[in-house]
């Protein structure tokens, strides 16, 4: 794509990067075939190519964002499916991030939009505030229809209450900063990012991660001073806040690395992982943090990437049909596609690919609150596609996706459990029964620990088979 930026404009580092990205685009339109919002809306301006034209015009002419531009940029999920599809290597992620930051500084949103975005950015990155807000949401849930019917804010408030968990918001033993020693002698040591929203919505994910790793000889540390990675506000264009969160994370992690070392920084929410792995780019112009940010990004790994390097062996019979939902941040943002599926298959699960797996479920951080109509349509499409493989369990690696899909399942009265990949791997290798699978089945006889959803039938089948084989052996048979 031909560009016409002035030397003065290109003196800005961010504009240099965006101009290079714009020149990479060749107008081919391949991105439109895999863009969820183009699929739903059918508008060229709601496709990556259309948004690129809007961004180019805005940047080249040094214009503040207009209402029309903001409408179409806000509808972008940042699912990055277009980056996977693009044959030219257009780095759309960095372009849309720059555009959102420009929107934030040049456009005054309507009051209700400003209020909603300010509320989300003031609550979600802070676990204690988020827990308190969810307690309030639980009380307000019976009046959801009333809130949803309010003018202007109604649809977003309704979506927010619908997504809030109806059950208790618990904590797990050992939550918070601390060192979790390995149960067996080992030499590996990793940092675990505790996160902000995930430990509130599902504290069992990090608990399963710690249990799994320490059981396999790996020391796990959750450093003091860490918190939100900045992804939530970053995708809302709040660049200053996002960078402040990133610096705090980097300080906490580098202090731990410098003091005692770490082999990796493990992240159990893929949406966070995509952002942390981009810290080196985000803070490239920060003289005090550029080198440290690059160091952190190099150490960051999704938990499944790290687990794939270990010699994990299943200790129980599994065999359930698992539909693996690959979060957009996992498959498009981090290019991790087969690793989680191979990991689950190695644990004995029958892993099924979901049709239209490349399409977003509509979660996308806070997108399912800010854009409830499009998010709802994508959720329904995703849940329908998951249902086609008739799974016993749904596995995913991102808490946002898990929450979004769980809402779609609940709307259909579908009791199929959705769990984090690491919870299944922990269970299969001798860990705890994942709570999302429901009450743990009772042992059919003393001393036996059942470990599958169809445990009684499985135990009976194994016992019968063993008796038959034993009888054949005693009879001298060899078949």
Structure overview:
There is one protein chain. The protein contains 25 helices and nine strands. The protein has 479 residues and is an alpha/beta fold. The protein has four domains: 9-106, Fumarate Reductase Iron-sulfur Protein, Chain B, domain 2 (Orthogonal Bundle), CATH 1.10.1060.10; 111-163, no CATH class; 178-307, Rossmann fold (3-Layer(aba) Sandwich), CATH 3.40.50; 321-437, Rossmann fold (3-Layer(aba) Sandwich), CATH 3.40.50. α1 crosses α6 (92-106), α3 packs across α6 and α12 packs across α24 (421-428). Mean pLDDT is 90; it is low at 444-479.
Brief overview:
By secondary structure, the protein is α/β, with parallel strands linked by helices.
Decide which structural class fits the backbone.
Answer: alpha/beta
Question: Uncertain segments of ≥5 residues (pLDDT<50)?
Answer: 444-479
How much β-strand is present in the residues?
Answer: 5-15%
Question: Quick one: overall form?
Answer: globular
| Rg for CA atoms | 24 Å
The largest sheet has its strands arranged as 1-3-2-4-5
Q: Could you report the average pLDDT, rounded to the nearest whole number? A: 90
Q: What CATH first level of the largest domain would be assigned?
A: Alpha Beta
CATH architecture of the largest domain: 3-Layer(aba) Sandwich
- How many strands, which pairing sense, and closed or not: the largest β-sheet? 5 strands, mixed
With helices defined by DSSP (H or I, 4 residues minimum), what is the helix count?
25
CATH topology of the largest domain: Rossmann fold
Give the oligomeric state of the chains in this entry, treating copies of one chain as homo and distinct chains as hetero: single chain
């Amino acid at each position: 794509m031909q560009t016409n930026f002035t030397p003065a404009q290109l003196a800005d580092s961010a504009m240099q990067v965006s101009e290079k990205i714009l020149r990479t685009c060749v107008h081919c339109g391949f991105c439109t075939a895999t863009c969820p919002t183009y699929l739903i809306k059918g508008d060229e301006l709601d496709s990556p190519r259309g948004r690129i034209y809007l961004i180019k015009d805005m940047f080249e002419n040094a214009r503040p964002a207009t209402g029309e531009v903001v409408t179409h940029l806000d509808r972008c999920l940042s699912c990055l499916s277009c980056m996977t599809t693009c044959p030219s290597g257009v780095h759309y992620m960095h372009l849309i991030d720059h555009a959102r930051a420009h929107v934030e500084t040049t456009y005054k949103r309507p009051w209700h939009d400003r209020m909603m975005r300010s509320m989300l950015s003031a609550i979600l990155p802070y676990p204690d505030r988020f827990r308190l807000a969810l307690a309030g949401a639980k009380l307000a849930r019976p009046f959801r229809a009333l809130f949803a019917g309010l003018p202007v804010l109604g649809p977003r408030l309704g979506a927010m209450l619908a997504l809030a968990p109806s059950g208790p918001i618990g904590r797990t033993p050992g939550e918070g900063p601390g060192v979790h020693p390995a149960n067996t002698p080992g030499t590996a040591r990793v940092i675990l990012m505790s996160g902000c929203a995930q430990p509130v919505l599902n504290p069992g994910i990090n608990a399963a991660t710690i249990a799994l790793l320490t059981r396999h000889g790996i020391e796990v540390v959750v450093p003091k001073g860490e918190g939100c990675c900045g992804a939530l506000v970053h995708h809302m264009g709040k660049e200053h806040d996002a960078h402040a969160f990133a610096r705090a994370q980097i300080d906490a992690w580098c202090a731990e690395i410098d003091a005692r070392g770490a082999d990796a920084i493990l992240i159990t929410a893929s949406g966070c992982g995509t952002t942390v792995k981009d810290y080196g780019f985000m803070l490239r112009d920060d003289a005090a943090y550029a080198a440290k940010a690059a160091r952190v990004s190099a150490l960051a790994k999704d938990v499944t990437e790290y687990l794939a390097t270990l010699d994990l062996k299943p200790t129980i019979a599994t065999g359930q049909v698992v539909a693996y939902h690959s979060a957009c941040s996992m498959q498009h943002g981090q290019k991790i596609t087969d690793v989680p599926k191979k990991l689950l298959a190695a644990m004995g699960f029958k892993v099924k690919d979901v049709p239209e797996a490349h399409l977003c479920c509509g979660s996308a951080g806070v997108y399912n609150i800010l854009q409830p109509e499009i998010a709802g349509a994508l959720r329904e499409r995703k849940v329908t596609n998951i249902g086609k493989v008739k799974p016993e369990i749904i596995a995913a690696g991102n808490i946002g996706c898990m929450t979004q899909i769980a809402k779609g399942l609940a709307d259909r009265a579908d009791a199929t459990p959705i769990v984090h990949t690491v919870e299944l791997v922990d269970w299969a290798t001798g860990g705890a029964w994942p709570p999302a699978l429901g009450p743990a089945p009772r042992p059919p006889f003393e001393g036996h620990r059942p470990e599958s959803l169809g445990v009684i039938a499985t135990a009976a089948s194994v016992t019968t088979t063993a008796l038959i084989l034993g009888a054949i052996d005693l009879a001298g048979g060899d078949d």
